[in-house]
Amino acid sequence: MTTDSLFALSGQMLITGGTRGIGRAISLRFARAGATVIANYIRNEKAAEELRALAAQEELSIELCRADLTTPRGLEQVQSAVKDTGRPLSGFVHCAATGVHHPIAELTKRHLEWTLSLNVVAFLDLVRVLMPYFSEAASIVAVSSTGALRALPYYAAVGSSKAALEALARHMAAELASRGIRVNIVVPGAVLTDVWKLIPGGEGRLADAAGRAPIGRLVTADEVAWATQFLCSNAASGIVGQTLFVDGGAGIIG
User: What predicted TM-score, i.e. pTM, was given to this entire model?
Assistant: First the structure.
């Protein structure tokens, strides 16, 4: 096996939240590396169509699947999209996420349940319903957040959900390894995406992250996608249940 083929991807891969931001970068990177991609989304039709157009322009194999992963109907739609191709599922990246950005005093049970339903429960539900379709050497990657470890302003709901996601992924890794399925976690640092427009003080926090990182800038969505490709490739065949930080070194600075 050549060095290039170690990092190549093949087969069918599902990317949730795969039409915007980091998920979009992962969908494109995986398709460019040789995979057939199913990019899931729920709301932004414009972003989905832009991805479809770019895929057609580059002759990439990317299919769109609009489905609400927090509903039984949405899970059925994704399952059908995977099943109908007749090909094994060689990879699944859970990039879809939601959440509210409120101080603790304003968080409600509904806020937390809504955040957990997509960020954690949908991940579990998808792995469960897709289990019959995974190939013998499939890879699952959960996209987490630095807020799983660090207390960030207005991030309690999302941060706690990402911590739960990481714990779930590690338990999955231990249980599924015997079936040849590897599960790992990737943790992006601050990446300039639309989500920061929804976070109070987002612009200042981005500037702080860029200043704290030893590389002197924010990491890019493409850099996160490259790391995720590595985790899903044969080059990472011995990596199971690990957390890969892609933060430009910001996490090592106090």
Answer: 0.93
